[in-house]
Amino acid sequence: MAVSGARRLLAAALLLVLLSGCVAKAAPAPAVLRQTPPPWPAPRDGIAYFEAAGVPASRLDDRSNQRVVTVAISIDDVGVPLVPNIGVDRPRALQAPVHTHDASGTVWLEGQGVQDVTLGQFFTIWGVRFDERCLGAACGGVEVSADGAAVATPAELRLAEVSDVQIRAASGS
Questions:
Q1: What is the chain's mean pLDDT, rounded?
Q2: Taking the model in full, what pTM does it have?
């Protein structure tokens, strides 16, 4: 009797393992650019945001072409911290060529596509509206400087060409 019960238990466990291996991961939700005030958490399923930004994905352990850029953001003179894991797709163990590891203000450039990634793509990957007028809900103007010089077209700024980016937005209220 005990052998028969053990066999049934083993068969049930084997069936469960087989069935769970057949279940596909859920598709990521579509990328949405938030038009809200901060805080802006990093998207959990980043792959849809990588695709929206038009950047390639690399494995999380890809450290090729590595460099860092410091990015500081303020809205109405109040600092907005970067958050960890911008540009990281945790469920798939992938990263964008531009991403953060922590909230220090350091943006990492690693993997394929590093030379071409722009500030506009970084904000698309973060899921935050960014253009010449708006940053999230702040639509009273956006000023960007890179290495101390004003940037005329901020969304097109190639991050691999600079080391320090300052972004100042006004709410317009």
A1: 90
A2: 0.85
